[in-house]
Amino acid sequence: MRLKPTSKPSRWHFLVLLLGLGWGLLQVVAASVPVETRVQAVLVWGTAESKPAGKNLKEVDAKLREKLGKIFKWQNYFEVSRKTAGVSASKPHTLKLSEECSVDIKILPENMAEVKLIGKGRTIVTRRHSLAKPDALVLAGDDKNNTAWFVVLNFN
Amino acid sequence: MAKQIDHKAALDVQLVAASQAGDMIAFEELVARHRDKIYARAFSMMRNEEEAIDLAQEAWVKAWQRLKQFQGDSSFATWMTRIVINLCLDQLRRQKRTRAESIEQLDEELGGVERQMPVVATNPSEGLERSELRKRIDKAMNQLSYEHRTVLILHEFEEMEYKQIAKVMNCSIGTVMSRLFYARRRLASLLQSLKKEQQS
Amino acid sequence: MNTELKLQALVDGELDAREAREVEALLAQDAQSAALMQELNWTKSALVGNDAELALPETREFFWSKVERAIAIEEKQAAAAPAERAWWLKLLYPATGLAAMVAVMFVVSGGRTTDGADSESVTEDVNAVSFRSESEKMSVVYVADENGNFSPVSEEVKNAPEADK
pTM of the predicted model, to two decimals? Predict the structure, then answer.
């Protein structure tokens, strides 16, 4: 049987090599580009009183209402404001939720986010939150007349 | 090394022993098991949700601090209940200095009003479903003054004797008896009124 | 003790045998006292086992996180309180308190369901409790501002005007 003589590297070999190098380069580039995380922040007011008829208050969506209702004692939850932004390690963001309140959000290494709740110009609480789990982050506190405020943050 | 206990399946005595040794998870299980009862007792005395929650919380903190003193003479639940009752009584005493009493309540305190109440001729709780009776009792209790409601709770629900009640309420046995008598007569009258309201 | 209170004491088993016999003899002769006795018995039996049953209106995790936090604060204060003791006890007790606080913090950090990577810090006049709800997939940080000043929801929102028709 005659063997085919060994040939020099063909165009296909070069193509495969090029593709491999290109893919590798792409991975390096992708790693260096900061991943943007979409953050949604909702400021909510919780109260035991039902919404007075005609008042310009918007109830939170049913899903959020159910979640909050299972954890906290208030019966009614009203959405005060809602903001969304893209945040990355190189691009921290401040979401202003009301005249009195804003949240500073920064993406940290190791899939973490740092959230600062700012009230009246001072930092009320700084929270380091793992983005590895699908949890919403809720910063909350007592408000006057046995009501409460909530800042609900969703990261995706 | 101490044997790990299954907190969910353990008896109260086991959880208490573990808590006394510093096992906070065991203590958390005790809190979970008895928190409703302790809160309910605080609420029955204070008739205010916020205060009852705060006092219940304070009772659990005190319990943790005093755990070593719990010798098992009574059940853990009874011991805890005593702690929250004492906290409620302290709070009521503080509030009494500033609380505005209604004319009716002052009449209660002065005594003698109960003698003017006609004796209830038929059993006001007869034929009632338990849930309905509980609702009516709760409604009627809500109309008593703090002192009268407290003495009724301590005697009827906590099964304390006159002298025990006198000690925790810091009054004479005679005062306990007078308050209990008034509270019962007033309760009977209120239950009778509620029964008539339902029937009409 | 007047007659009515004696009747009550009989119902409650607080009379000795002699006094009990005297009251029972009275009941046999006095219809008014017998009627009052009956009312006291009805009231007593109506209350037996009918204490209101209520559920604490906070979740297990939230309530526990407040208790846990309060215990840690108490222990920290106890450890910080000065003691009038022998010189060697002055060294021993603070160290023991600190060790207890560290032990509590160790158990707290080791036994809770919150993700170990999560943490928060607050200013001096703010307390915070944190917990995680596995079922609702929510991590919660509840702050208590001691000055009670922080309220992100304005009064205008709470007293929102009538919606435009």
Answer: 0.63
